[in-house]
Amino acid sequence: MLDPADHLRPADPAAQADLTAAAGAGAAASAAPANDVCVVIPMFNEAAVIGGVVAGLLVEFPMVVCVDDGSSDDCADVARAAGARVVTHPVNLGQGAALQTGLEHGLRLRPRREYFLTFDADGQHRVADAVTMVQAARRGEAEVILGSRFLDTGTTMTGSRRLLLKGAVAFTRLTTGLRLTDAHNGLRVFTRPVAEMIDIRLHGMAHASELLGLIARSGATWKEVPVTIDYTEYSTAKGQSGVNAVNIVLDLLQGRLARGRR
Amino acid sequence: MWIKILLALGLAAFAVVGLVGRQRAGRKALRRLAIFVFGAGAVIAVLDPAAITWVANRVGVGRGTDLVLYVLVIAFLFTIVGFSARFSDIEDRLVQLARSVALSQAAGEYGADLRDQPPAPQGGPVS
Question: Domains in chain A and their CATH numbers?
Answer without folding.
Answer: 31-261 (3.90.550.10)
